[in-house]
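Subject: EAL domain-containing protein structure
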Amino acid sequence: QAKASGRNCYVVFNQQMSADLAARIQLETELRQALLLQQFSLSLQPQVNLNSGKLCGFEALIRWQHPQRGIVAPDEFIPVLEQTQLIVDVGYWVFDRSCRYCAELIAAGLNDVTIAVNISADQFLHTKLPDRFGQILQRYGLSGHHFELEITESTLINNFSETLGMMYRLKAQGFRLAIDDFGTGYSSLNYLKQMPVDVIKIDKSFVVNMLDNPQDYQIVASTIAMVQKLGLQVVAEGVESLAVVKLLQQHQCDFAQGYYFSMPLAETQLLAFVQQVLQQHWPAALLPPATQ
Ligand code: C2E
Ligand code: MG
Ligand code: MG
Ligand code: MG
């Protein structure tokens, strides 16, 4: 590499770079073991139907309990899992665990619960995905209708025809499909029009500032309007205040998710949360009186 770059160019490989590289190799090694050592867990973040004011489901979010560093954020390790293809196996683990939660939630009384699961590009294009997901569903006695598979705009754009084919296979199994982080990628509306997508998730970067930033507000409002004109449903993520909830309701946004309603819940918190929901103490108490 250094040689190929020619005599007038220097490839600077300094101490900092070798330290970074060593840290990266260390991270990869630890991630290869994390699945075997059962260091991953899934947290579930509640999603609320803004029309009825009721819990409608959860998004499954992976967590890594590192033996020395404690909980490591997914933004730090998902990209590494993606670059090393480890994401494919971890993704099957995530779906399996999501099914287990789903069966537990149904058994606890949440019959119509939906669980949203994040799917990286390489996972989505894994030819065996529909078969593997089908087997996992069967193991838990579930149907695809309980799940919403979230992909990002970059997955669509980079492999349009393969993505489209996979979407139809998954739709045939009953899965709902969502576009995550909408507005941050390059999705052309022309692609969107051709795809069997059910749900658009407006990226939290627009939602968190929509009260203070008029541009973010316009982006959120017009995205909601457009998505609904296309006959799809819309979720706002990153909802942190009641004022934002009210604004989203004014614009007839279908669903919301964010710290205002709940942090992602660890397994140990989940059943207590479900009890609260079933006793109707959540989220009705948090919604403005006009909507109760
Ligand atoms: P995402 O799918 O867009 O998930 C939403 C992120 O926003 C989550 O971060 C969530 O904890 C955070 N969040 C929730 N409510 C609020 C809020 O009110 N305000 C703000 N500022 N943030 C909020 P998290 O859990 O750190 O996950 C980050 C990303 O990692 C996810 O973004 C997703 O792209 C990826 N990820 C998480 N779990 C998985 C997984 O199982 N598989 C794959 N492929 N990716 C995953
Ligand atoms: Mg997501
Ligand atoms: Mg998102
Ligand atoms: Mg994201």
